[in-house]
Design goal:
This protein is mainly α and 169 residues long. The chain is built from 6 helices and 3 strands, in the order H-H-E-H-H-E-E-H-H. The chain starts with 15 loop residues before the first helix and ends with a helix.
Length: 169
C-alpha cells in the first residue's frame, strides 16, 4: 500500500517508510479486531481486555494486579475491576499475598485457561488459512519484524513518558 508522497501538513517533511509502517500496523490492528469481534465468546462475556489479562496470567503465572496493569500499560484500578469481574465468572482466582496480606495474587483458573486457549486456537486457524500462501519461515520472519517494531515503539514511548514526567523535552 503506497501512500501519497506529499506531506499532509504543509511545511512538514514526510517520512514515507515510517508512515508505511504506521499504516501497516493500523491495517493489521483493524484486521485483528475484525477477527476478535467475530470470535470473542459473547456467551462467556470475554472481551479483548479480559483476554489480555488472561494472556498475561497464562504467560507469566500468578502475580499482583499492579504487575498485570504495568504489563498492559493501564492503571491498576482498571485491572482491579477486570479481575473482580473475571473472578465472578470463574476465569481467575485471587488469594492474599503471603508477603503482604493487603495485596492479592491473581492466578488463571482452569476455566479461564480453557477459554483463552479455545479463542487463540480459533484465531490461529483463521490466521493460518488467511496466510496459506506464506510458509513457516516467512511467517516467523514477519513475526520477528513485528515484535522488533513493537519493542522499539514501546521503548520509545517509555522515554517520551519519562521526559514528560520530568519536564525534559
Amino acid at each position: 500500500m503506497q501512500l501519497a508522497q506529499q506531506p499532509h501538513v504543509p511545511g512538514v517533511e514526510r517520512d514515507t517508510a515510517a508512515q508505511e509502517v504506521l499504516e501497516g500496523v493500523s491495517s493489521l490492528i483493524r484486521a485483528v479486531r475484525c477477527i476478535e469481534h467475530r470470535q470473542l465468546m459473547p456467551d462467556a462475556g470475554l472481551r479483548r481486555a479480559d483476554a489480555s489479562v488472561l494472556k498475561v496470567l497464562l504467560k507469566d503465572g500468578e502475580q499482583r494486579g499492579g504487575e498485570i496493569a504495568a504489563k498492559l500499560g493501564v492503571d491498576a484500578s482498571v485491572v482491579s475491576r477486570q479481575v473482580t469481574a473475571l473472578e465472578a465468572d470463574g476465569l481467575v482466582s485471587r488469594r492474599p499475598d503471603p508477603a503482604d496480606a493487603r495485596v492479592g495474587l491473581v492466578s488463571l483458573a482452569p476455566r479461564g485457561k480453557a477459554q483463552l486457549e479455545a479463542m487463540y486456537s480459533s484465531y490461529t486457524q483463521q490466521l493460518r488459512a488467511a496466510l496459506a500462501d506464506l510458509d513457516d519461515d516467512a511467517l516467523l520472519a514477519a513475526a520477528q519484524t513485528m515484535q522488533r517494531v513493537a519493542l522499539a515503539i514501546t521503548e520509545a514511548n517509555k522515554v517520551v513518558r519519562r521526559s514528560q514526567s520530568t519536564g525534559d523535552r
